[in-house]
């Protein structure tokens, strides 16, 4: 996963960063991170298609791309709220409350996305 | 009283004296003053040769209105010259001033034609003298035919160009958008779907254990969330907005209860574990 770098020092830094992430991040957060990566890749692919080929079913592009962006924002906020290290910042927000917010936000987002699909 | 008046008028009309013209005459002079034509007018029939006026010529018509059988002049109430173009149907009425003694003189200067002269066509103007008087029977005398120089074309109104049908409007539309060729669509379909492989691969490595997922307190919440997604797919495929809002409201109530139950159970477990 770590990109190959020509400089050994830079390679070393990236390697240690990756190692620290693998070791110190819980599986639950990695699970969420995987979803974030997926959303980002999917959004980039759709955006490339819109720019390079055609935006012809523009509503479909809007629906797909905005669902990626919106879901990314919701998931990122879920991740920051359930991260145990951020406990002091979100004292009154329990992880359950965060997940309930995430579920409600996702349902509303998906409703609008399906409206755009046409 | 009224009927008596009408009767009196009728009697007066029956006994009305007839007016006639004495020594009617027309003269055409050029702008230099040379007399081109001067003829007496015959009341019985109009002049056989039309009177022709060139540019800057002056036409003079003189006569005296008298009662037939008497030599005393009469001043009628109304005296008009009527210029009538038989072809175009246009006519112009020019009032003539008559003196107390019944003498009248009319001058038509073609250098400064009166407004009452109708626009010319290729037919001559018929000139008629009309005399009206309450004490006499009306008189209408065809004097002569008059040929005048062609009038100037009517001035063009500055907005005249706006009062014509405009050219037909042809709407132009953007050309129909086309789907890209099939191979490109296929390549990008694979490209757009490929993140799913990444997602599933990463999840396979990092999937956290979910020991309570199928417990009776949590499963309903997961089920209702799944039902929401199913409802939205159904909305995309078939449902109308009102239907999906109704079903969604019902499903939302259920979800609130199941979610509260499931999340409070999880919360209790989390707190108890600590």
Automatic annotation (TrEMBL), chain A:
Cited InterPro entries: DAD/Ost2
Entry's Gene Ontology BP terms: protein N-linked glycosylation
Keywords from the named record: Endoplasmic reticulum, Membrane, Transmembrane, Transmembrane helix
GO cellular component, one term: oligosaccharyltransferase complex
Pathway: Protein modification; protein glycosylation
Membrane topology: Multi-pass membrane protein
Subcellular location: Endoplasmic reticulum membrane
Role this protein plays: Subunit of the oligosaccharyl transferase (OST) complex that catalyzes the initial transfer of a defined glycan (Glc(3)Man(9)GlcNAc(2) in eukaryotes) from the lipid carrier dolichol-pyrophosphate to an asparagine residue within an Asn-X-Ser/Thr consensus motif in nascent polypeptide chains, the first step in protein N-glycosylation. N-glycosylation occurs cotranslationally and the complex associates with the Sec61 complex at the channel-forming translocon complex that mediates protein translocation across the endoplasmic reticulum (ER). All subunits are required for a maximal enzyme activity.
Subunit structure: Component of the oligosaccharyltransferase (OST) complex.
Family per record: Belongs to the DAD/OST2 family.
Identification of the protein by name: Dolichyl-diphosphooligosaccharide--protein glycosyltransferase subunit OST2
TrEMBL record, chain B:
Transmembrane spans: 184-204, 216-237, 243-263
Signal peptide: 1-16
Record membrane topology: Multi-pass membrane protein
One cellular-component annotation, GO: oligosaccharyltransferase complex
InterPro entries: Ribophorin_II_3rd, Ribophorin_II_C, Swp1
Example of a GO biological process term: protein N-linked glycosylation
Principal cellular location given in the protein's record: endoplasmic reticulum
Domain Ribophorin II third: 37-133
Superkingdom as given in the UniProt entry: Eukaryota
Subcellular location: Endoplasmic reticulum membrane
Domain spans labelled Ribophorin II C-terminal: 173-270
Pfam families: Ribophorin_II_3rd (PF23860), Ribophorin_II_C (PF25147)
Keyword terms: Endoplasmic reticulum, Membrane, Signal, Transmembrane, Transmembrane helix
Pathway: Protein modification; protein glycosylation
Family label: Belongs to the SWP1 family.
Role, per record: Subunit of the oligosaccharyl transferase (OST) complex that catalyzes the initial transfer of a defined glycan (Glc(3)Man(9)GlcNAc(2) in eukaryotes) from the lipid carrier dolichol-pyrophosphate to an asparagine residue within an Asn-X-Ser/Thr consensus motif in nascent polypeptide chains, the first step in protein N-glycosylation. N-glycosylation occurs cotranslationally and the complex associates with the Sec61 complex at the channel-forming translocon complex that mediates protein translocation across the endoplasmic reticulum (ER). All subunits are required for a maximal enzyme activity.
Name of protein: Ribophorin II
Organism: Sphagnurus paluster
